[in-house]
Design brief:
Elements lengths: L1 H51 L1 H11 L16 H17 L3 H18 L17 H7 L17 H6 L24 H33 L4
Helix pairs in contact: 1-2, 1-3, 2-7
């Protein structure tokens, strides 16, 4: 009798496992797609903020200084970008999905794969699908030096975020612009690359101080506030 009960329990566990395993793949896929969507959405807004804030642009412009964009451009980021990405992209993703450290590390590596693809020095275009998924052509527009391309195509994977938020630029079939900084600034040495943001920030602070001193002098001489 005891043996029969044990066998019945074992069989029920097997059936329960089969029922659970039936849903394991679709649930995992749904969570994976959801995490990718959320991660790309957070990444979109952080990236857009890096372009709209002079202080954040100072550490992001090193990435855009690449004049010959290729797969290595994926890692051409100033180290100060890492804590920003961790704080505003990785941490919210962890809080929302409760990923374990190992799972989170694997997710970060997987999310990095599309970044390699979109920075390829290859004339790959998706046509109309470029409004859904990023490709080397749509992302090259983002790195373009041409005025009409500035601050376009921020998304790293799902370009429909750009479509939704009004920053999408759909390139023509033969549109492959030159890349680099529109300002003409270039990076030719490792020391300059390492200290580039700090040099820019120092210049900005100095300019702010001079501007404030000038305004104060004007006020002292005219009695009118700037």
């Amino acid at each position: 009798m005891h043996l029969c009960l044990c066998s019945a329990r074992a069989l029920s566990r097997i059936h329960l496992f089969r029922d659970c395993s039936r849903w394991l793949l679709p649930v995992s896929l749904s969570l994976g797609i959801g995490a990718a969507l959320v991660r790309d959405l957070f990444g979109y807004w952080v990236h857009r903020l890096q372009h709209s804030s002079r202080w954040l642009w100072a550490q992001h412009e090193f990435h855009h200084s690449e004049e010959h964009m290729n797969v290595t451009t994926t890692w051409r980021h100033h180290w100060l970008e890492i804590p920003i990405q961790m704080l505003f992209v990785t941490a919210p993703l962890q809080l929302l999905f409760g990923l374990r450290p190992m799972t989170l590390a694997m997710a970060i590596l997987i999310f990095q794969v599309p970044s390699y693809f979109i920075h390829l020095n290859s004339r790959i275009r998706f046509g109309a699908l470029g409004m859904v998924f990023a490709c080397p052509q749509t992302h090259r527009i983002h790195h373009s030096v041409e005025a009409r391309h500035i601050d376009k195509n921020f998304a790293g994977f799902f370009t429909f975020w750009d479509v939704i938020f009004g920053t999408y630029y759909h390139p023509a079939k033969d549109e492959w612009p030159e890349t680099g900084l529109a300002s003409g600034k270039t990076v030719r040495s490792l020391p300059y690359a390492l200290f580039m943001p700090f040099i820019t920030w120092a210049s900005m602070l100095n300019h702010t101080s001079l501007h404030a001193a000038s305004n104060a002098a004007d006020y002292r001489s005219t009695g009118q506030r700037p």
